[in-house]
Design brief:
Oligomer: single chain
Largest sheet: 7 strands, mixed
Structural class: mainly beta
Helix content: under 10%
Number of strands: 11
Radius of gyration: 13 Å
């Protein structure tokens, strides 16, 4: 299993970013996928989860209405569209599947 995140960066409050997670090594189209985030040494927080067909399984209350998880089963990629970003969204964002984590991508929201 390999999960490779991309798309993080520095953005001003109110801005947007789209994270991508390219997956390989398993049958992506059969897998529920998740995005987590972690601030410093705090516990990783589940941000969003999507089922194999694209149905939404979960959004954290803190991101509802601002973040959208989606997937492309042809490209074996899961996305996290993040709008109206706030400083408190600053974290390392991780893609997750079945006990496996990507390397993470840093998102920093600051003016």
């Amino acid at each position: 299993v390999q999960l490779v995140e991309s798309g993080g960066g520095l953005v001003q409050p109110g801005g947007s970013l789209r994270l991508s997670c390219a997956a390989s090594g398993f049958t992506f189209s059969s897998a529920a996928m998740s995005w987590y985030r972690q601030v410093s040494r705090k516990e990783r927080e589940l941000v969003a989860r999507i089922d194999r067909a694209g149905g939404i399984l979960h959004y954290a209350d803190s991101v509802k209405g601002r973040f959208t998880i989606s997937r492309d089963n042809v490209k074996s990629t899961v996305y996290l569209q993040m709008n109206s970003l706030k400083p408190e969204d600053t974290a390392v964002y991780y893609c997750y599947y079945s006990g496996k984590w990507g390397q993470g991508t840093q998102v920093t929201v600051s003016s």
